[in-house]
Amino acid sequence: MSALADFRAELVERGWLLVDRDGLVAGTGDPLERVVAGLVAAIDDVSAQAGRPVQRVRFAPVTGQQLLEQTGYHTSFPQLIGVVHGLPRDASARRRVPEGEAWDHDFGRSGFGLVPSACHPLYAWLRGTQVTGTAYTLTGDCFRNEPSEDPFRRVSFRMREVVVLGTPAQAREHQRVWRSAGLALYRSLGLQVHDAAANDPFFGRQGAMLANNQRDEQLKFEFVVEPVPGHEVAIGSANYHEDHFGVDFAMTTPDGQPAHSACYGMGLERTALALAATHGFDPGRWPDEVRVALRLS
Amino acid sequence: MSALADFRAELVERGWLLVDRDGLVAGTGDPLERVVAGLVAAIDDVSAQAGRPVQRVRFAPVTGQQLLEQTGYHTSFPQLIGVVHGLPRDASARRRVPEGEAWDHDFGRSGFGLVPSACHPLYAWLRGTQVTGTAYTLTGDCFRNEPSEDPFRRVSFRMREVVVLGTPAQAREHQRVWRSAGLALYRSLGLQVHDAAANDPFFGRQGAMLANNQRDEQLKFEFVVEPVPGHEVAIGSANYHEDHFGVDFAMTTPDGQPAHSACYGMGLERTALALAATHGFDPGRWPDEVRVALRLS
């Protein structure tokens, strides 16, 4: 077995990941859940130290399918998208399914899609409003249609985000603060992390051109670890979106200009797994300072 | 406006529910999230008092589509199901979407479906194993394809469950304890709740016959409130499934018999909204004993 397959097998054995015999159940067990709760609390601690008031919001894993268009996700990452199909509203509800026939052959678009990135519904909610530099924090379930045996690459995963919408200066400052604070947070947890300028063509319609600029402009920093030898993983990022979401969702600052936005995002399962790879599978035996930061008893 | 529409408008106005201009964003704001966190803690308190060790697990909102068949949900409630469609694996990833053409016309079944009831992935995970009366607790996101203006009836909602799998005696006892403890919990929060024997044809293939028996056998008790005059809502239930899931998922007790199961489930958003209807929209001003039980400061 490869080192990655070994690591996955041990995650299942130790109750971190729950899979059924088809490998399809995407569950997580008690030790991982305790670590995830601790990571969320640690991010909230950093936010509190920054002094800016943070508003907590939460969005469901399912959203209106059109959000996937409004963000340009449908052209940037169509292969990762999941849209939801169901029975037409006027279909008779109870029915018998003939043996051997697919029971969903008459399903069609329901109008719902799966959220691909935790902060997207936030912009849809704020669409057409004035924003003033408020920070929002949320945990969102994300769906990416890329089944894999890699335990760091899950079809459904949770992302914790802290997002600021406001002036260019407010957004840039948010990215600057979290680039530094994010790095410090990971290192305080004993993770050997480096930050790397990255590109990520989430910029919809303008596509590849902006993706190239992104690296030059340092719009995206990823926090990268190597939990398994030879296997680098990004466990978070600090991003400055310029006016991308501000324009697409008609959000403006008080002076009438398009809002700029920035976000810090942590992949919760990924970070928890990186901690397991670093400190072992029993959080109760992790170094004192890590247990304190993550409220592990 | 009806009383229900008035209530919904106030939930949006007070930041409990977050909707965009299309009404499609299913978000929840800070006050509701604080109450939901308190409800989860209060359920854990009840579990701890019962003395039985409880194992925490968590399942993603997305599961293998076949789970919908294994539970019989595809014949019992086909109209509520959501299955996930995506691009075929071999589709070229990046592409241009011709103006006016649906960008998902070539999507097909991805093999994933949305979890309809929080405890179902638990049975898939435990399939083929021996169970010994362990209690599992989890918060799960559920999808029901029934868009509605009723704030108590959300397409995507969270359910907290405490499930026991074991002998018939263990499962019956779990239902008995939680029928009483659930009622006491709601009443301690100031909710005027009554419990009602109910039926719920989740029993798959055998369908209607079992649904009738269910009421006679008292397999399902719902906790019912009337948060808005004339609008009764079930905010939880205590259920005894007999060997339904034990047989379908080949779970056995140490003596080789099919496992029996029982669950207590609380609709988290529903219960939080019922509390808002009862105590008002500012949790900081709720009665002392309710704030203490829900850790509201």
How would you describe the overall organization of this protein?
- The structure is a homodimer of 297-residue chains.
- In chain A, α2 crosses α9.
- About 3% of the residues of chain A have low confidence.
- Chain A has a single domain, classed as 2-Layer Sandwich (BirA Bifunctional Protein, domain 2).
- The first copy, chain A, has a seven-stranded mixed sheet with strand order 3-8-9-13-12-11-10. In chain A, strands 5-7-6 form a three-stranded antiparallel sheet, with no helix packed on it. In chain A, strands 1-2 form a two-stranded antiparallel sheet.
- Chain A has ten helices and 13 strands.
- Chain A starts with a helix and ends with a helix.
- In chain A, a hairpin with a 2-residue loop joins β11 and β12.
- Chain A has 297 residues and is an alpha+beta fold.
- Chains A and B meet through β2, α2, β4, β5 and α4 of A and β2, α2, β4, β5 and α4 of B.
- β6 of chain A pairs antiparallel with β6 of chain B.
Element layout with pairings:
Two copies of one chain form a homodimer.
Chain A: H1 3-13, E1 17-18, E2 27-28, H2 30-50, E3 54-56, E4 58-59, E5 62-64, H3 67-70, H4 73-76, E6 83-86, E7 108-114, H5 120-126, E8 135-143, E9 156-166, H6 168-188, E10 194-197, H7 208-217, E11 220-228, E12 231-242, H8 244-248, E13 260-267, H9 268-279, H10 288-293
Parallel strand pairs in A: 3-8
Antiparallel strand pairs in A: 1-2, 5-7, 6-7, 8-9, 9-13, 10-11, 11-12, 12-13
Helix pairs in contact in A: 2-9
